[in-house]
Amino acid sequence: MPVSSQAGADETILVAQAREGDMQAFSELVRRYENKIFRLAQHITQNREDAEDVLQETFLKAYEHLNQFQGQSKFYTWIVRIAVNQALMKLRRRKTDKSVSLDETIDTGEDTIVREIAAWDEDPEQRFSRDEIGEILDSAIESLEPPYRSVFVLRDIEELSTEETAEALGLSVPAVKSRLLRARLQLREKLTRQFKRKGDDAFAYL
Amino acid sequence: MPLLTCKDFLRELSDYLDESLEAEIRSKIEAHIAECPNCWVIADTTRKTIKIYKGMEPHSLPADVEGRLMQALERKLAARQR
């Protein structure tokens, strides 16, 4: 990986320089996070065009409001929150499409689905290429309903804390936790169908 | 100490895997999965699910998408400096 002179530069310095109008410093910040922000936007909007809009709007807004960034949170957490807001706005604009409602009543009961109980191959990479694994992971996420998907993406992919996720999505902490549990279990279910050890099945342990 | 049911275990699973449980409930969970092979498998495969997603690196931005992003930023800057 090529190391530019700013690649290892301290982020607080870059932010301070960008705030002074140093476009190169801001570009370095963009380059650090553009891939992750685009992925986040694609996961939440499930639409490439919307994701590209979200990507641009996020960094334009970040640049515009850089002086409001207090430095109490990480720069990354701050832009993730901007990106989530932009992505949710896109979803709301498409709210005639029922499938993207984030506010739908969801069942938080305890009838959590566990059907597939089977151990996984120790190393799925021996059976699948990296690209294949990437596709399996992406399509499993796509199959989640938006309320679960957004929570999972922020908690387990972008690695925000429960509290940060709650704040970004306007949810309570218990709501984040119960959605996260359901999301994880649903994904576990789907991945188990692909990654289970050959010969294992639901009855192997009974 | 009363034993956990599988249902109790499932309810605590996320916090257990995030290591945010208090010691007492944590040791109850561990006692449960030591005895219950199904719940052990669920805990193990859910942990692997989280781990495989955490390890997933994002793809690089497609060149056209990055080009348009940089153009948008430059336009913004030009508008400011005018």
Largest interface: A-B, 43 and 34 residues
In helices, the fraction of residues of chain A equals 55-70%
Using only C-alpha atoms, the radius of gyration of chain B works out to: 24 Å
Q: Name the structural class of chain A.
A: mainly alpha
Helix count, DSSP H or I runs of 4 or more residues of chain A: 8
- The CATH H-level homologous superfamily of the largest domain in chain A: Winged helix-like DNA-binding domain superfamily/Winged helix DNA-binding domain
How would you sum up the global shape of chain B? elongated
Give a short synopsis of this structure.
The complex is a heterodimer of chains A (206) and B (82). In chain A, helix 6 (146-157) packs across helix 8.
Task: Describe the protein's architecture and organization.
The complex is a heterodimer of chains A (206) and B (82). With 206 residues, chain A is an all-alpha fold. Chain A folds into 2 domains: 11-99, Rna Polymerase Sigma Factor, Chain: A (Orthogonal Bundle); 102-195, Orthogonal Bundle (Arc Repressor Mutant, subunit A). Chain A is 60% helix and 0% strand. Chain A has helices spanning 11-19, 23-45, 48-64, 75-93, 130-142, 146-157, 162-169, 173-195. In chain A, helix 1 (11-19) crosses helix 2, helix 2 packs across helix 4 and helix 6 crosses helix 7 (162-169). Chain A starts with 10 loop residues before the first helix and ends in an 11-residue tail after the last helix. The model of chain A is unreliable at 1-5 (pLDDT under 50). In chain B, 76% of the residues lie in helices and 0% in strands. Chain B contains 4 helices and no strands. Chain B has helices at 6-17, 23-35, 37-54, 63-81. In chain B, helix 1 (6-17) packs across helix 2 (23-35) and helix 1 (6-17) runs parallel beside helix 3. The radius of gyration of chain B is 24 Å and the shape is elongated. The model of chain B has no long low-confidence stretch (mean pLDDT 91). Chain A binds chain B through residues 23, 26-27, 30, 34-36, 38-39, 52, 55-56, 59-60, 63-64, 110, 112, 114, 117-120, 124, 133-134, 137, 152, 156-157, 159, 177, 180-181, 184-185, 187-188, 191-192, 195, 205-206, and chain B through 7, 10-11, 13-15, 17, 37-38, 41-42, 44-46, 48-50, 52-54, 56, 58-61, 65-66, 68-70, 72-73, 76-77.
